[in-house]
Amino acid sequence: MTGWRRVLGAIAALLVAGAVVIGGPWALIRFGRLAAFTGLDWPGLLTTADDGSLVLGVITVIGWLAWSLATLSLLSELLATLSHHRWQIGIPGTSVFAPVSSVLITAIVGLVASQVVTPAVAHASPSQPPAPQPAATSVGEDAAQEQQGTERSTPGRSHLVQPGDDLWTLAERYYQDGSRWREIAAANDSVLLQSTDHLEPGMLLAIPNPSAAADDQVVVQPGDTLTGLAADHLGDPGRWGEIADANPGVIAEPDAIDVGWVLQMPGHEPRTEPESPTRVEPVSAPVSSRVVTSCPVPPDRSSADESAEEAEPTLWRSALPSFFGTALAAGLAGAYALRRRQQLAARPLGRRLPPLPEPAAAASAALSAAQQEQLRTATGQPPTRVPLGERDAETIWCDVERNAVTWLQGSNGDDLAVGAHLALTLASATPDTAITVVAAGSKFGWLASLDEPRLVVVDEVADGLRMLRDVLAERASNLPDGMGIEGLRADPALGEVWAPIVVVTSQAPELPLPAALSVLGASVVVCGGTEPAPSAGVTVVIHGEQGELPTGEVFRPHVVTPPARRVLTELFETANLTDYPPAPWWDETPDAELPVVLPVAAWPGSVEELPVATTVDSEHPVLKLLGPVELVGARGPLPTRATKQCAEYCAWLLENPGASAGAMTRALMVADPTRRSNMSRLRSWLGADDNGAPYLPDAYSGRIMLHPGVTSDWEQMRLCLGPGVNRVNDATLIEALSMVRGAPIADAAPGQWHWAEQLRSDISATIRDAAVVLSRRALDAGDLLHAQWAVETALLANPDDELLLATQIRIADTRGDRAKVDELVLRLTRRARMLGIDLAEETVTCLQEVVEGRARLRRA
């Protein structure tokens, strides 16, 4: 019956598709009224009564448009299905018809496939004897039938689906090849009626023809024990000791085996596959007549889910508007992070860090990801040896000092794009690298927004070359006899003054370049446009996305194009702002600073006995972000892998409700199959509420929304402090601060949570401001206990914060603890020196009053 039902459904789908593609135009031509537009009096359109022809004409136009989109949707879905979704064409407007097109095409292709491909044999009962096969009449039929007979006579096995299982993982386990997942899907086509992306725990799947290695090894599942494994695989639970003996380096305590362990099973002999007749051609793996519409993806192989997926190391490049090299992206990330730290350190009370515009925010996340990749692949290079581009994933290096003169030849600004990349890469080296880069020419003026001390920007090329000649003349007069540039740089007392100097010009210079550049530790990079290059030096020709070396080798150059310049300018200008916008957690109304009439909370007991907030207790899942990330209250089973990535996805959805799948993929910088796989795990983990409503519903509208009951401790803190940190009473501040368990998102591994920079800073700033307000109120009331507790709690999220340390100094001074005062003063001043910032006037006054007994007099 199932086969007949499938055939009838496919025929019906074929008729519907034919009616749309063929019948639609016939009906529109036969009954349409496009001719109404030909004799229409356009000037009198608004003054003449319509007899109905115009309305019919408009309906006809709409009908043709709808037919075009429906037909394109069917063709797009057909192409995607036949290519197993390797080729997918997104056509604007066709999404309305996509669900119907998918159903029709799946049914039609399934019918065709069932006629031309040998149907897979159902293995629901692996032990069932094979049916007798008729004699072969041709080589092709004989091959197919012998393949069927071999499969049916080969023993299979069953697998009980565990939480976190997917077809790719099972194929890797039983075949040592994840790409063979379709064989499992084909053998269970009566069970897997819907998408193969998600397997329900408790399903019993048939595994056809598992490899011998699959019988030799077992992956420990939740609930497994040695006695149970011995009963299942050795036929006797008393033989558990043999499994322990076969795995001496894995099993230390027989009573404790961990989920995910791969255990060797004793007593298995490798199976030998039956030999096929030599005349039989190889037959591909059987394919089910049901068309599988989505392919499972390989699971996350990161160790303990601590790092990002290894298969996606360079997805950060898709978030940048230029083809950046990893070295430049990592250097810019470090420079930007330092400026943001300096900006955060100087943030006034009740203000927040200036948020980044959207393109700059995406670029910031991408640069952070690149920095982690650079840390994994970093190789020690001289400061003047920088990446020029790539060829077949191999880096092309350029040592500008060794070249002395590097001439970039290209039109339409191609030379400037490469020159800007070289200048930025040289100037954004590690902070301890001594180098001076001079960007000369008005077209490099945008580089001044980086505010990088090692990057000097001048408006005229002649001015940059004049600076170079002055340095060369001074070095030539001070060059010791018999010493080379490397020896001088190796001397700690002389290394800085003999550090490399590189001048990058935005156009060809009018005067000849200085001689003896390399000998004196200098070099020039010329963006020469189409000007002929001099005979000296090295010439690199740039044509768009292709570069050519003097040797004739072709490569893809690293570039900083105009869109990237705008994004970098926005990024660093925002990081250099000193005008902080008002914070949403602070009340800016004129009476906001009036004294709070409620009394200071007097909780009994010591600081350790202060109550823990119960605000985050909920009958629904709660994601904890005010410390190590933790998802509590989930109704489903814990995923066996990628749990931290699932928690990150949950946080992103909480901060971006109603976002699209594409926006999520771009923000998290993951491949879409990875996102879908982790979303499936998160959906299973969250589960459903008491009424059966899923906490992560399917996004049929194209917008992803969590269940309204899912929340986070950060949302609860914002709700608690809604009226304003400076307006709520002390008990509310204590309740909010007692939610803090550490630094925000404390256990995120490097390379994860790139998108959360503003989230982290807002959480830290809210905690800091709440603690400062509470501690100052407590100090005024003589309550040192709560003042100290508030400061120590906030320091978990804001180590070495200036206002918190200044408050702690006042507390220590009030207690008469001079040793603690001295320790904190040293810590505070050292922090300012390390960040290269000045202490706030308020802090300076505090230190003078505490250390010297009074503030120093100042002129008005």
Describe this structure in words.
- The structure is a single chain.
- By secondary structure, the protein is α/β, with parallel strands linked by helices.
- The chain is built from 26 helices and 17 strands.
- It has a 10-stranded mixed β-sheet with strand order 6-5-14-13-12-7-11-10-8-9, sandwiched between helices. It has a 3-stranded mixed β-sheet with strand order 16-15-17.
- Strand 13 and strand 14 form a beta hairpin.
- Helix 8 packs across helix 9, helix 10 packs across helix 11 (358-377) and helix 21 (730-737) crosses helix 22.
- The longest helix has 30 residues, at 2-31.
- 35% of the residues are buried.
- Residues 113-154, 268-313 and 594-616 have low confidence and may be disordered.
Report, as a whole number of angstroms, the end-to-end distance. 97 Å
Strands of the widest sheet, in order across it, are 6-5-14-13-12-7-11-10-8-9
Spans of at least 5 consecutive residues whose pLDDT stays below 50 are: 113-154, 268-313, 594-616
Helix content: 40-55%
Beta-strand percent range: 5-15%
Largest sheet: 10 strands, mixed
Rg from alpha-carbon coordinates: 35 Å
C-alpha geometry: globular
Write down how many β-strands occur, each being a DSSP E stretch of 2 or more residues.
Answer: 17
Secondary-structure-based class equals: alpha/beta
* Mean residue pLDDT: 76
The total count of helices amounts to 26
Give a quick precis of the structure.
By secondary structure, this protein is of the alpha/beta class.
Record the SSE blueprint.
Blueprint: H1 2-31, H2 53-82, H3 98-116, H4 139-153, E1 157-160, H5 167-175, H6 181-187, E2 204-207, H7 212-216, E3 217-219, H8 226-234, H9 240-246, E4 262-264, H10 326-345, H11 358-377, E5 385-391, E6 394-399, H12 400-403, E7 405-410, H13 414-427, E8 436-440, E9 455-458, H14 461-478, H15 485-490, E10 501-505, E11 522-529, E12 538-543, E13 546-548, E14 554-557, H16 562-575, E15 622-624, E16 630-632, H17 643-655, H18 661-668, H19 672-686, E17 711-712, H20 713-720, H21 730-737, H22 757-780, H23 784-797, H24 802-815, H25 818-835, H26 841-852
Parallel strand pairs: 7-11, 7-12, 8-9, 8-10, 10-11, 15-17
Antiparallel strand pairs: 1-2, 3-4, 5-6, 5-14, 12-13, 13-14, 15-16
Helix pairs in contact: 1-2, 1-3, 2-3, 5-6, 8-9, 10-11, 10-13, 11-16, 17-19, 21-22, 22-23, 22-24, 23-24, 24-25, 24-26
